[in-house]
Amino acid sequence: MYHDDPYFDANLTSTSGLTIEQWGMWGWTGGKKGTGHVLKSGGTDPTRVINYQSSGCVGSPACCQDQRLRTWGSGHPGGSVFVFADASTTFLSESVNPATLAAISTRNRADTIPDTY
């Protein structure tokens, strides 16, 4: 998780009292949903794009907080560095197909990952 989101820190801490940096520490910081926010998930939420910022969110503070906390990112322009379960790393572009992003974010679903991403 990329720990830079001034809008989040200024507007979305009322729900939990935690800044984006505090959320990014470990799963225990977030209670019931903490581990899910730290480890992300493969859902199909339209905000599941790389380097999504909370300033684009419309909805309740709790909803916007959850959307931002489920976001993959590393602060690199144009994409993010990902570390996979086999310890390999790769840079994925912000324009990666959302279906591909969901497929590589799940386990045991037998999703097919295209050769180019």
Describe, in plain words, how this protein is organized in 3D.
Helix content is 26%, strand content 9%. By secondary structure, the chain is α+β, with helices and mostly antiparallel strands. The radius of gyration is 14 Å and the shape is globular. The protein is built from five helices and two strands; from the N terminus they run H-H-H-H-E-E-H. It has one domain. The model has no long low-confidence stretch (mean pLDDT 74). A two-stranded antiparallel sheet has the order 1-2. It has helices at residues 6-11, 20-23, 34-39, 61-69, 98-103; strands at residues 79-83, 89-93.
Chart the SSEs and their pairings.
Layout (H helix, E strand, L loop, with lengths): L5 H6 L8 H4 L10 H6 L21 H9 L9 E5 L5 E5 L4 H6 L14
Antiparallel strand pairs: 1-2
Helix content: 25-40%
End-to-end distance, in Å? 20 Å
Element-level helix/strand string: HHHHEEH
Main sheet attributes: strand count, strand direction, barrel closure: 2 strands, antiparallel
Count of helical stretches: 5
- Mean model confidence by pLDDT: 74
Radius of gyration: 14 Å
Based on Cα principal axes, name the global outline.
globular
Low-confidence stretches: none
Strand order of the largest sheet: 1-2
Measured by DSSP, the beta-strand proportion falls in 5-15%
Query: Pairing-aware structural class of the strands and helices?
Result: alpha+beta
Question: How many domains make up the coordinates?
Answer: 1
Please give the number of β-strands. Answer: 2
